[in-house]
Design brief:
By secondary structure, the protein is mainly alpha-helical. The protein folds into 5 domains: 124 residues, no CATH class; 80 residues, no CATH class; 66 residues, no CATH class; 75 residues, no CATH class; 60 residues. 76% of the residues lie in helices and 5% in strands. The protein contains 11 helices and 5 strands. It has a 5-stranded antiparallel sheet, covered by helices on one side. A hairpin with a 2-residue loop joins strand 4 and strand 5. Helix 5 packs antiparallel against helix 6. The longest helix is centred in the middle third of the chain and has 50 residues. The N and C termini lie far apart (186 Å).
């Protein structure tokens, strides 16, 4: 037992190195705690021993120590913002100072005070992190604005819409910058989006006008095609359908909801015409093949007059051939040239034979040939006479020259007589 300041006896617990060593129990059951500022009463626990009373307030200290430990872990782990941590430290510090507990309260206060420098460090880290995030946010928003302004001038009417939507979603997820900077960037982004939307609507409006004009043009083409569908004038009508197809392609696409229907209508009309044309041409082709076989048989027959030996008979046969030839209709296009070549060959052979016969029986030509022969005979007689006179006077050289000239003229005379003989009547 010991005495208190008023001389009263005080109950002192057994020595201990634990929290209980910072307290004592007075004789009246009052429990005290020692701090650097001295002792202060923390309370009484009626009807218990001094040890039990002291242990009651030690348990309060243990709870405080646990609270301080938890706060330390939260602050060091960054689970609290610096401001929230500071508020918690102040609250717990006040609780410890006024705590009705027995233990090393001063060490708890010291541990709480030791957290304040850490808060300053955390605040500095927070500021650095916030600055880094602000720079990243600024860079990201500037990229979004630059891309939006590029898109605003592009003609990517489908992909651009989706990209603007994606950019807007990403923008909303970013934190705000300072008001002036954030507002300025948002104004540029929003203006770019508005510009793009306005240009896109104008483009689609023009496109709608073009598609409507295309619809009207294609309706007109279909109406014109309908007027041609029953035509049997295959060549010109085929050309007309070709022109309609050119106009169809040039008209461009009609509205999507009618484009396929318009095309099916137009293609159906074309198919109807070209199916009829194909059927007609198939029948015509069969007829033309029959005509080809008939004309080839005629050609085989007329070619028997070759080579032409009797011009009169050949001409009569050829006239009969032409009469029969003209009564046969058209032949396939690919057969026309070979057959025409055969016909021309027969015609040419007959004409050449006739010209040759005329040449041989031409009176004027025969007279010219006989006149040439007579002149040559007269010239030969003169040369022979000249040679005889030269020989009589002993001029051998002159006689020889005259004889050689006469010999040359005799060769010419032979040729002239042969030519004259060719012109004699058969």
């Amino acid at each position: 037992m010991s005495e208190d300041a008023n001389g009263a006896a005080a109950a002192t617990p057994a020595p201990s190195d634990g929290p209980a060593s910072f307290g004592r129990v007075d004789s009246d059951g009052t429990v005290y705690v020692r701090t650097k500022d001295g002792e202060r009463a923390v309370g009484q626990v009626p009807d218990v021993s001094p040890e039990e009373a002291l242990e009651f307030f030690v348990r309060r200290y243990t709870a405080l120590e646990l609270e301080v430990s938890l706060l330390e872990r939260r602050v060091r782990g960054g689970n609290l913002s610096p401001d929230d941590a500071a508020a918690s430290i102040r609250t717990v510090t006040g609780t410890v100072r006024e705590a009705n507990a027995v233990g090393d309260l001063d060490s708890l206060l010291a541990r709480l005070d030791a957290l304040n420098p850490l808060l300053d460090q955390k605040r500095a880290e927070r500021r650095a992190e916030r600055a880094r995030q602000q720079q990243e946010t600024l860079a990201a928003k500037e990229r979004f604005v630059a891309e939006a302004e590029r898109l605003a001038q592009s003609n990517d009417w489908r992909g651009g819409v989706n990209r603007f939507r994606s950019l807007l979603d990403q923008w909303k997820q970013l934190p705000r910058l300072d008001r002036a900077t954030d507002d300025a960037l948002w104004h540029r982004f929003s203006s770019a989006r508005t510009t793009y939307t306005r240009r896109r609507k104008a483009q689609f409006a023009q496109q709608a006008e073009r598609r409507e004009a295309a619809r009207q043009a294609k309706e007109q083409i279909i109406a014109e095609a309908q007027q041609l569908v029953d035509s049997t004038d295959w060549g010109p009508t085929t050309g007309a359908f070709r022109n309609l197809m050119t106009r169809w392609k040039a008209a461009g696409p009609a509205p999507r909801e009618v484009e396929e229907d318009l095309w099916q209508r137009f293609r159906g009309i074309q198919d109807q015409f070209f199916s009829a044309k194909q059927a007609a041409l198939s029948a015509q082709d069969s007829e033309f093949r029959d005509n080809q076989r008939a004309k080839e048989a005629l050609l085989d027959e007329i070619e028997k007059v070759l080579p032409v030996t009797d011009v009169g008979a050949a001409k009569a046969a050829f006239r009969d051939f032409l009469d029969r030839w003209s009564q046969i209709g058209k032949v396939p296009r690919e057969a026309m040239r070979p057959m025409d070549n055969r016909l021309r060959a027969v015609e040419t052979a007959i004409r050449n034979a006739e010209e040759e016969r005329w040449r041989r029986t031409n009176p004027e030509a025969r007279a010219r040939a006989e006149d040439t022969a007579a002149k040559l005979e007269a010239q030969i007689a003169q040369l022979e006479e000249r040679a005889a006179k030269a020989a009589a006077r002993g001029d051998t050289r002159a006689a020889q020259e005259a004889s050689e000239s006469a010999s040359t003229y005799r060769q010419w005379l032979t040729q002239a007589q042969q030519a004259a003989d060719e012109f004699r009547p058969e």
